[in-house]
Amino acid sequence: MPRYIYLHGFASAPSSRKAQFFRQHFEDKGIDLAVPALDEGVFSSLTIGGQLKVVEREAAGASDVVLIGSSLGGYLAALYAARNPQQVTRAVLLAPAFCFPRRWREEMGEDKLREWRERGSIDMFHHGAKAPLPMGYQLIAEAASYEDYPDLVQPSLLLHGTADTVVPAKYSEEFVKRHPATSHVILLTSGHELTDVMDILWNETARFLEL
Fold first, then answer.
1. Nearest 5°: CA angle at 200, between 194 and 204?
2. ∠ CA 28-86-97, rounded to 5°
3. Is the pTM of this model over 0.90?
4. Could you read off the pLDDT of 51-95 as tens digits, one per residue?
């Protein structure tokens, strides 16, 4: 049986609503779904590379890994799958945050980025902690070394809300254009969180993974 791993989004946690929803549905089918804490409990020192190491440890020893990722977790799933094509066999990406490094720089602007760099950290709301927590500048500095659209060659299902203003659906559509033979996007009438269409998320995921 494959090892199934769920990757939560930025400033989120294994206790998130979607993570627990998927974990319960997998459990109902007698399947264990791993949901690691990608920040390892230290949000302030988060990096893309650090999160990929968490995924690597979780997947260690498995020859068949299926990744499910939400938002930044979807981007991480694509990055890891692209770097491990012999290990990861399928991926489900929920509103994946493609172009993460570039979009953050564009949306924040040079003044805010300069302030962040000079201060060393800025406060960001953490949904798991339900409070603002400091986030170090190393996140955006290190993220610049990663590609906008990972070359994920495995079969992949993308689910994205048409009203998503955090990561517009056009990014998933662009990814599918780059990988037409292996990827498919389903657009849903929803926003970034997708919490109002979770039954659809599960049904499409279960169908894609042949559960």
1. 115
2. 65
3. yes
4. 999 999 999 999 999 999 999 999 999 999 999 999 999 999 999
